């Protein structure tokens, strides 16, 4: 199984992060790009603008958000394929800016990638 971790972008990097990938569509507030340690910024793996705005990090929308976001991810994209390929090869840490560590899109993406990359490995 792929080693995919998640971490707030505001937390300091650690040597065991592996490849650090920002998975937010918008640049995180209060940070300068020169101050962020990351290898990739893959905007297109983030929820669509419409879905992000609708969710608004409201816990009451969490269950429905997860379903809608998984549907978006299942359509695939070049960046999602790139992220899956990275996760198949080495540890990846998904970086996100949301405040809530239990209710954010990186958790859904992490789960989706784990299932996706393990299925790919079974077919090879």
TrEMBL record:
It holds the Pfam family DUF488-N3i. InterPro entries: YeaO-like. PANTHER family: CYTOPLASMIC PROTEIN (PTHR36849:SF1), CYTOPLASMIC PROTEIN-RELATED (PTHR36849). This is DUF488 domain-containing protein. It comes from Komagataeibacter medellinensis.
